[in-house]
Amino acid sequence: MASGTWEEFFAAHLPPPDFEDNRSLLKEFCERHDQYGNRIALVTSGGTTVPLEHNTVRFVDNFSAGTRGSASAEYFLEHGYAVIFMHRQKSLEPFTRHFSGQKLLDMLDIQERGPNTTITVKPDSVDVLAPILLRYKAAHSAGAILHVSFTTVSEYFWLLRAACECLTNLGPRAVLYLAAAVSDFYIPKDRVPTHKMQSASGAPVIQLQLVPKMLAPLVNLWVPEAYVVSFKLETDENLLVPKARAALDKYKHKMVVANLLQTRHHRVILVTPDETQEILLTREEVHAGVDIEASIVLELVRLHAEHLAPCGAPPAAP
Ligand code: 9Z3
């Protein structure tokens, strides 16, 4: 089934309730960093949902834990970029990603002596916690990171377009790193029931419609000068590079990071108009907890600097 246009999608879906607040935050953040000539990376992260009911009990989800986006955001900060971290609510976030589950509580000791309770970090955990805490504090006290969150696919698109509108003034200093796993399908609003679907009514027949490809207006209209990087997720190796290259040919942006669901944490392929470059972690590196995102972002920062060089911009901060 053919998809509607992106204009029709925005016309049919109201902006989320917190949209104006987020738009003001994005505007302030971009204007402040633009003033200083900083580079900004918009990192999208996590999966979008497609609600099956307006009062949503059930939804279709896109797979993504937010590992790629949250780790990459940290590396962009390390390279001197300001970061807009646009993420699925409750997916992994920069810095706190290191302490998911019970990890943080396991690092603490508690002593109860009479009315005084003291909580301390276990001596052998200080070495783990300190460097992360320092980087976290530095990023936040410098106002270098802004978090905005989405849940549904339409919330994602409203935020993405608003972020682009604010980033467009930065021209080529803006990087868009679109790692979020975005649904290709949705249910048109007028076919979504208000209340929870009842099993007594029998098995529901749900027809999904194609989401319009937002990369086209994004690259051509919203941020025509930005350095745009999209991600291609496949499960079949044979489709991976051909589909990544097809996307690059179609949308004419700067890079597609291609990855397979099964191997995404230790292998990616960077596809640019000029080359196809594989990044592969060794077994030892995986074991030692090396983030593949460090290498992806390093290469991206290098290419972005090359792209900026003709504009006379200084190289990225180390
Ligand atoms: C990705 O391919 C990301 O690398 C992952 C990261 C979602 C695999 P995790 O968050 O996983 O570390 O668990 N993102 C893009 C997925 C996507 O929706 N791509 C679209 C497609 O493949 C194009 S924009 O068609």
From TrEMBL:
Query: Which protein is depicted?
Result: Phosphopantothenate--cysteine ligase
Pfam families to which the protein is assigned, alphabetical: DFP
Origin species, per record, is: Bombyx mandarina
The segment(s) forming the DNA/pantothenate metabolism flavoprotein C-terminal domain are 173-265
Domain of life where this protein originates: Eukaryota
Query: A GO molecular function for this record?
Result: ligase activity
The UniProt keyword set, sorted, is: Ligase
Provide a GO biological process annotation.
Answer: coenzyme A biosynthetic process
- What family does this belong to? Belongs to the PPC synthetase family.
